[in-house]
Specification:
Blueprint: E1 4-14, H1 15-23, E2 28-29, E3 40-46, H2 55-58, H3 64-67, E4 75-88, H4 91-100, H5 105-115, E5 118-133, E6 146-156, H6 164-175, H7 183-196, H8 200-213, H9 218-224, H10 227-231, H11 234-238, H12 243-257, E7 283-285, E8 291-296, H13 306-319, E9 327-332, H14 338-346, E10 349-352, H15 354-366, H16 373-381, E11 386-387, H17 389-420, E12 425-426, H18 427-434, H19 445-455, E13 463-466, E14 475-478
Parallel strand pairs: 1-3, 8-9, 9-10, 10-11
Antiparallel strand pairs: 1-6, 2-5, 3-4, 4-5, 7-8, 12-14, 13-14
Helix pairs in contact: 4-5, 7-8, 12-15, 15-17
């Protein structure tokens, strides 16, 4: 039940620790004193560590890229309620604590040596509706301690960082110092983290692993996907006169959708920071299939026939015999002239508006991997050519319907098990319950099983599966929601 309450104190913690708490990466903090369960307080970022050692000796390698890029401005973004406090005073426990958090064991060993014991508080963290700016900066000697706020904050429990089920699981795991459930995935994160800072495909993979491990939920992924900042500018820029920025956003869009290009030719590539300039095609993708395109940001004027003509000429100049096999796209904000429309139709080009591109890329951002590029290819290669918004929007609606169906199946498993007081169940029982659940569309039992397998794959992780002797004896159980 949502409630409003005043918070008048703040716990000073390292800024990177608070970032990890707000992201759901950890649920624990190391205060200087024992915090009683039930106590509520704001989280105040301090530009310091618990002990003065190099940052790469303090944080594990998978979290280090985040810790090295922290905004240390004094700004409160969340408050917390202490759920449990413990005292740790042995090195064996520190080894397990390190495996379940962001702190290196050598850092914990030094803290223990210095303080003789470590207080560990389990925090249920809630995001504020708006960041709270602070004029005074806390000194490093306040680290791990409480300070009074200039005026009380009115907060609510409307926006928990982690849902109840995920937090309870993480709390139990930390309380009992259980080993990591998937240590091999966490090791993979160590490799991915530095790459993900510069590579969007690696970042998508990293986010999927975070979701599977329970460090984030689907709603968090939407909140923390920084790409949404530029994605929400695609339509605005495409309907302006800023051609260079529209070309840059278009290239980023195709990378976000999963396209790539190894071509080093500056006149035909996909690098958002190396635009083709005069005489180059606006974007070129190689994988999983060749796509070539022209961008035309227009504020009010019509798109002339020279725009598709330029795509033909420059495409053939730079791609030569590869041009004919390319899917051809024009991204244009304005209305086409009659001659331009005739040219694109006769040359099997697809004209897509910035609004439709933004919608497609935003969908991919919200549901990673939902856009099947081979299905998109079929969509773009089928008639009619010319104005392609209708057929692309039809494909978007198909994706949305597929997501709705899968969300319905996840909810079906969840509530069937709750009502039946079971840990898992088979496809035949679920198929029987499906017909009485007002489903989005009818499914035969084999189709349902295939989708359940998809939802229980290791990098999807909405459901779990216990494999049976054959497909009908497989058992499925609920892991996390798939919101639509």
């Amino acid at each position: 039940m949502n409630s409003l309450l005043p918070v008048s104190t703040a716990l000073c913690l390292p800024a990177a620790d608070i970032k990890a708490l707000v992201q759901g990466r950890i649920i624990a903090a190391m205060p200087r004193m024992f915090i009683r369960p039930g106590q509520k307080f704001a989280l105040y970022p301090v530009d310091a560590l618990t002990i003065p050692i190099p940052i790469d000796k303090y944080y594990c390698s998978s979290f280090l890229p985040v810790a090295q890029n922290i905004d240390t401005n004094p700004k409160i973004q969340a408050y917390a309620q202490c759920e449990l406090s413990q005292i740790i005073d042995d090195n064996q426990s520190l080894e397990k604590l390190s495996q379940l958090t962001i702190w290196r064991q050598e850092a914990l060993d030094k803290i223990l040596h210095h303080q003789k014991h470590i207080f560990v508080s389990y925090l249920r963290v809630y995001k504020l509706s708006q960041p709270y700016e602070i004029s005074l900066k806390a000194e490093s000697n306040k680290l791990g301690k409480f300070i009074g706020l200039p005026k009380p904050l009115t907060v609510s429990n409307t926006h928990p960082v982690l849902p109840d089920q995920i937090f309870a699981t993480r709390k139990r795991q930390l309380e009992k110092l259980e080993p990591a459930t998937h240590p091999e995935l966490e090791q993979l994160l160590d490799v991915l983290s530095p790459i993900a800072m510069k590579n969007s495909a690696a970042k998508q993979f990293q986010d999927n692993i975070h979701l599977f491990l329970g460090w984030r939920n689907r709603k968090q992924q939407k909140d923390f996907d920084s790409d949404l900042v530029w994605i929400h500018k695609i339509a605005e820029v495409g309907n302006s006169s800023d051609g260079n920025e529209f070309e840059r956003l278009s290239r980023k869009s195709f990378i976000k959708l999963g396209f790539s290009c190894s071509n080093i030719n500056s006149k035909a590539n996909l690098d958002p920071e190396k635009l083709g300039g005069a005489g180059g095609v606006d974007f070129y993708c190689e994988y999983p299939y060749p796509v070539v395109g022209e961008c035309k940001a227009t504020k009010s004027e019509k798109v002339p026939s020279s725009t598709p003509g330029q795509l033909i000429q420059l495409g053939k100049n730079h791609l030569q015999e590869k041009y004919d096999s390319c899917v051809k796209i024009i991204l244009a904000g304005g209305e086409l002239t009659k001659d331009a429309l005739l040219t694109v139709q006769n040359n099997h080009m697809n004209v897509i508006t910035p609004e439709t591109l933004e919608k497609l890329v935003e969908l991919q951002s919200n549901y990673q991997g939902c856009v099947n590029l081979l299905e998109l290819k079929q969509c773009l290669q089928q008639e009619p050519f010319g104005l392609a918004d209708d057929k692309v929007n039809s494909y978007i609606r198909k994706i949305e319907q597929d997501i709705k169906l899968r969300s319905h199946l996840v909810e079906l498993v969840k509530y069937y098990l709750q009502n039946s007081n079971l840990d898992s169940t088979g496809v035949e029982a679920l198929h029987g319950a499906y017909f009485g659940s007002q489903p989005p569309r009818q499914l035969n039992i084999k189709e349902m099983h295939e989708i359940l397998i998809e939802l229980s794959s290791s990098l999807t992780g909405y459901l779990g599966r216990t494999k049976g002797a054959d497909w009908k004896s497989d058992k499925f159980y609920f892991l996390r929601d798939l919101p639509t």
